[in-house]
Amino acid sequence: MPPNRPLRTLFLSLLLAGYSMTTHAIEEPDYTIVQDLGDVEVRRYSPYVVAEVEVEGPAEKAGNVAFPILAGYIFGKNKGARKLAMTAPVKQAAMPVKMEMTAPVQQRAAAGGYAVQFVLPKGTTVTSAPEPEDARVHVREVPASELAAIRYSGLWSQSNYQQHLERLQATLRQAGLAWTGEPIYSRYNAPFTPWFLRRNEIWLTLQ
Fold first, then answer.
1. Number of neighbours of residue 154 by Cβ within 10 angstroms
2. pTM for the whole thing?
3. What does the alpha-carbon distance between residue 116 and residue 1 come to, in Å, rounded to a whole number?
4. Where are the chain's structural domains?
5. pLDDT for 124-140, tens place per residue?
6. For 143, phi and psi rounded to 5 degrees?
7. Which of left, alpha, beta for 30 (phi over 0: left; psi -120 to 50: alpha)?
8. Which CATH architecture has domain 7-206?
């Protein structure tokens, strides 16, 4: 779900370090469009590698917690002090709720968290990516997948997010397409990008 205002400061640090997410083309994972459903695209993505960190909720604070950890990794907080290019999108999705055992013996749902990912540059593999110094950062491959994406501009607000998620789900139901897992919230621009120029997307993985 959308992050809140403090994330602006974190994105601004990227700009000051020489990364621009507004005036230059930013690399993103390769995909092909396999079906056009109006304002929804069905895409087939090739495998790509991400740096990921898992953080506790709530959703609007998860990005603020995860962002400096992941930014540190690509800025050189890794073995070899290698710097990696900033790519897009920054992805966020809820993790499955875990079941915990309590005493007396019974199960209860533990508080859910969020996985936040930076996509690593093309050509990076799990073995060639620098090893993180921060144990909270994990490098892994996202396998090839087919997903439905809705693209929209505007504010990073809960209402804007919810409105487009519902539109995406309604479009898939009408097309007879089923999805699995949690929605993936994908952001392509820095917060200082004017709201009407932002590219925001919500992805649902198709079954």
1. 15
2. 0.80
3. 11
4. 7-206
5. 999 999 999 999 999 99
6. -70, 165
7. beta
8. Alpha-Beta Barrel (3.20)
